Amino acid sequence: MTWSHWTISPFITSVFFILGVLTLYWVSQNWLLTFLKTHHHSVNEAIINDWYGLLYMMVFVFGMQSLIIGQSDAWAFMNFQLIALTFCGYFLNIRVHYYYLYPLVLIFMIYNQSIGYWQSWAHAIVLIGFFTVLGQLRKRVPLQTKNGQIAIYLLVCASFGAILWWLMKLKFNLSWETYLQEWSYLLVFEVLLYIYASMLSANAQLKQNLVSFANHDALTKTENFAAYTNAINYHFTVSRKNGLKLTMMMFDIDHFKQVNDTYGHLAGDKILQHVTQVAETVFQANNPQITLYRTGGEEFNVIFPGYDLNEARPVAEQLFMAINHIAVPVNDHQIQLSISVGLSELTAHDQTPTDFYQRVDGNLYTSKRNGRMQITAK
After folding, report:
1. d(Cα 372, Cα 61) in Å, to the nearest integer?
2. How many angstroms separate the CA atoms of 195 and 199, rounded?
3. Residues 48-65: pLDDT tens digits?
4. Cβ-count burial of 364 within 10 angstroms (0-12 exposed, 13-18 middle, 19+ buried)?
5. What are phi and psi for residue 307, nearest 5 degrees?
């Protein structure tokens, strides 16, 4: 039995195994969130993060332990368990109160056939303390903080790891050599976890920023034409397939080019921002599912899922009244605003989202041709 066989090989295998488990978690969680968003389900990412992460790691821990239940080397996967705990408690920042862990730990002790050992009870208490401290550490020293973060993180992991492995040493009568080796492995795993999770977190944040940038208008912060295209394709397909109601509104700001030419483009930008804020306030007060999109310079589209024309028209009239004749202060001027509106509901004659769009667009231009500042709904 060589040092290489018993130390280097298991260590390298463990590193790749842990990284594989973590990678599978990130991939599966991202797939789940993408699936829910693609199908336009309203999801709370924090809740998905909390419970999916906890469930995933519980399956991982119970699955690994099932291989060695009742054996003399039942301590062999403890580092994997501690890595899972660190990942959930610190890197995922799972907001689960510590007292929810009591039944989970008790179930694990029964499952692991270790409930009759005092060392197991002490181990459980220290584990819960470890999870609690990790959560507090994450709140006080966020992952994005660099100064001294890794030192505090390693100090916490090393301290709790030393206590937990000491309890395992007592329970399984491990040698000091094994104790120090496993504790050292834990520290290396924790460092690798920190580096790996930090990289994934940075990449995920970058991806989120890119997606947000691609789907939101930089000036008004509302969703843009790309987001509108994705949404109308989805709602059109679902509404046609399931016989659901769907209404769309288009409006634009009257004489907007004249405002730009007279007062400058900064004044025009301020007006666009103001109109967006008013519109989002009106829609949020009625139904958060009503979504506003800036689809052109001064042109906006609004999708009303589940609304027919008669149900959507009062909301359109609220917006109409809220914006028309409003005075927006720009420098030393009070700029009067008005909008023209086109409104229509989905019909059986609409074969594509473009057919629907063109009819609503036609209603908008009817309003503009007939003197502006009016609603055309048909």
Report:
1. 66
2. 6
3. 776 777 777 777 777 766
4. buried
5. -110, 140
Tell me the pLDDT tens digit for each residue of 297-334: 889 999 999 999 999 999 999 999 999 877 888 777 88
The rounded percent of the chain whose pLDDT value lies above 90 is 22
What average pLDDT does this structure show over 132-155?
73
CA distances (Å), origin 23, targets 89, 102, 190: 17, 28, 15
CB neighbourhood size of 139 (10 A): 10
* pLDDT of 367 over the 80 cut: yes
Is 33 buried (19+), middle (13-18) or exposed (0-12) by CB count in 10 A? middle
For residues 95 and 89, what is the distance between their CA atoms, to the nearest angstrom?
A: 8
Structure confidence by residue, pLDDT tens digits, 168-190: 888 888 899 989 988 998 898 88
Sign of CA dihedral 358, 360, 362, 368: negative
Are 301 and 248 within 8 A, CB to CB? yes
Residue 351 CB contacts under 8 Å (≥ 6 apart), including other chains: none
pTM above 0.85, yes or no: no
